[in-house]
Structures are given as structure tokens and as C-alpha cells.
């Protein structure tokens, strides 16, 4: 419990850092689809089980500057049941959580992003819940858009850390950002 | 652009080459089913004010026939044991021979224990063993009220506590499922080491507390599904079929494809496609969800259901769901 409180406090603290001093406020929406491999910490019939995962995130508040960007995202993940194999199926679930996301722009088109977060998960068919943490890293590519509207193609590589399973995910997604105060060049 | 298209196909490529498609599936073994039903008409508390149950014998007979038909449909070797206390007798109507021991089909604690102990000697890891119970459960503890062995009121020696039954089942090799249709049967569903039930009171700190707890998750080979959590469970008369069933078992039978509009000769019945199945498989979670959504009582109290009785089925948590039948 103390560790959970500490995690929440760190997330809140990070969200209060005055990033606005060096960037513009940005709101974002992120969607991605990934392959989800459940690697068990227990002896299973397979080294890992495969599911599909769809992620949606809403950037509650964020700041974008060149070359940095940070945001606090409300994230949600929907994972299907795994492909049936042998005597078991890895149960599908959905979750909701918070994550801190940062990005670093290397060229006008290419940047790297990363995030850390924590979630509460609920199985689809049974009434059980569990906690998890996640770490994400990946490249993103700016698609041609306007100054206030940014659209990035993302390739998120995520590790979903559950008590009994570690689940690497790789997928593809889009991240839209709206920067209301961004000035047009004169 | 070509690189981009290549990256788009990575998730698809991983799915196509995933473990499930490349590994040989483990063999499915034999199917054993032990089906118990008690009507309690032979104990001292008979009559309208007694504890007689009118749906349990129907539950047991129809479940037994359903499992027999399912084993034929899934082409598995099967061994069924129907144990019933029906009427005033203190004796069974037939016997089984398991592992060389002859056991009466009268569902007393001694006979049920003997069946399960002997099954432990003959079953293998790849087998499926299902144990069902339709009868009374003691308040708060959920102990099964098994058949009395001397006339009079039931005594504590006629009860089988959850821990005792779980221990007997644990000793049996194979994949196992308990289906308990009785009051307080949630006691048979043990808490998972990796997830927390949201049916009982729980908070977000419980979820994180379990994440950091030392208890290790083991792949489950014993699942339990109960009619209720920590409340009574009920039976009802279903007008369309003109006989009683447990609310839970009625939905369970339906989930498995049983035709409720059957004749008196159950042996001539056939199963329809199980509505709880998906892609030719029936799993514990599939059954659980079907029962929860289709049982004749609400599973939680709300303004729209008030003041009805409620009955919340339960099953085990954790990362894995168990496949029971492939057809």
C-alpha cells in the first residue's frame, strides 16, 4: 500500500513540474493496436500465449517544445483472450491507468518516446481485478500536418508488468496532439 | 515508405508465427464425472417446514445425462458416477467399482470420500474430473450437507467442509472442476494469489497489495464454480418444464446445450450446440458468464432488482481460464 501511494505521489508530483516554462500546452489522443505476448512466471504449456491489445490514451495535460515533449496520460488497454491452446486460455482483460509520457525529437520527422505508468485491470468474464505497471518505448514519425495539429505514427514497444505474467507488446498507433497556443510563423 | 509498411506488418507477423500455431497441443485424456443430488426426505425434518429440496434430483439426473452426451460428442472415454439420496432409504440403489473397491452410490460422507480417494488412484494428469453437488450448504461455512447414515437429524459427521472436499480433489491428478449448487457455496472458491474478487468488498489498495505480496501464482488445475457467494442460493419451479431445478444448475444445463423441454426418458435426449461454447470450446469462464447472464435471479442488488433475492455465482481468479470440452 505504501508503495502504491508513493507511485501515485510521484506521478502527481511530475505532473506539477512547470514544464510550461519551456513549452506550449498540448492535448493529445493516442490509439494503438499491439501484439500481446503473455510470458508466464509459472510453468505453462507454452512459453508464451498470444493476444491482441488495443490501447487508447487521453493526454490530460502536456507540454511540447523543441525537442522535448511531456504529458500526463489517462490510458486504457483492452486485451483479448489468448488463442486457445491445450487446457488453458490466458484471460482477457481491460484496464485503466495513468502514465507519464515523454518524447525527444531527433529530426523534424523522427522522435523517440517513452512512458511509465500504473494500471488497475479487470478481467472480461469474471469479477476479479489486479494491479500492474507498464513501461513503454518507441519511435514516432511526424506525419504532414498543420502547426497546431500534430499527427504522429507511433510504434510502441511496451512491457506490461503483472504479478504472474510479464507481457511484451509491439504494435502500431497514431497520436494526435492539439497545441492551442502554437503561433503560426510570420 | 517501404520501411513503414514493413513495420506495419510486424504485429501481424508475430501473431501468425505465435507459439500456439507451432506447438503440438497436449492430448485430452479421459473424462470422469461425479454427480451428487440429495432431496433430504429421509431426515427428521420432513414436510413443508422441513429442508426437503425438490429440484436437486432433477439437477443431478439431467447433469449426469448432459455429461454423458458431452463425452460422446467430444469422443472421450468417460466414466460417470451418479450418487443420489432420493426418498426415505438410507441405502444406495447401486454400486460402483473404482480401483477395485466397490462403493455404494448413496452420497454419504464415507461413500463420497471413497469415490474421490479411489479416483485419485486411477486418473492421469491429462484427464478431466468434474464433481457436481446439488443440495444444502450450511450457513456461513458452506459445508455440504451430505446424506445421513442413521435416521434422525443430520449431524456434523454428515457434513463435508469445503477444505476437506478441496483437499480430496487436490489429490486427484488431472484438470478438475467443482460445480456446487448450494447455499454459501462461495466458500469453495478460494482467493487467487494474483487477483482480487470485486464481488466482495475490495479497494484499489487490495489490488496493489496483492501485486507486492509474496504468494506465488501457480497454474490452477482445480477450479470451482459456485451458485452463490456468501449468501443463500435458491431453487425454483420453471413453469415451462413443470419441475424444479436449482437456479444455478438450470442455467448451467442450458449453457451445456441441454434441452429443458425433455421427455421422461432422459436417455433418448440429445444436446444442442452449447450456447456457452465459443469456437468449438467450452471453458470455465464461458460457463460462468453464461450462467451469470442467464440465471433466473439477479446477481446483485440494485434499484431495478430490489427486493428480489440475489444469487451471485463465483469462480476462481488468476490469469488462466480452463478449457473443459472441445467439440
Largest two-chain interface: A-B, 52 and 51 residues
DSSP strand tally of chain B: 15
Question: Would you tell me which CATH topology of chain B applies?
Answer: Rossmann fold
- Main β-sheet of chain A, in a few words? 9 strands, antiparallel
Order of helices and strands of chain B: HHHEHEEEHEEEHEEHEEEHEHEE
Tell me the strand order in the biggest sheet of chain B.
2-1-5-8-10-14
Estimated share of beta-strand residues of chain A: over 45%
Class from secondary-structure proportions of chain B: alpha/beta
Shape summary of chain B? globular
Q: What is the CA-CA span between the terminal residues of chain B?
A: 46 Å
CATH level 1 name of chain B: Alpha Beta
Reported for the largest beta sheet of chain B, the result is: 6 strands, mixed
Assembly type: heterodimer
CATH architecture of chain B: 3-Layer(aba) Sandwich
Measured as a percent range, the helix fraction of chain A is under 10%
Number of domains of chain B: 1
Beta-strand content estimate of chain B: 15-25%
Count of DSSP strands of chain A: 10
Structural class of the secondary elements of chain A?
Answer: mainly beta
Question: What Rg of chain A do the Cα atoms give?
Answer: 18 Å
Average pLDDT over all residues of chain A: 90
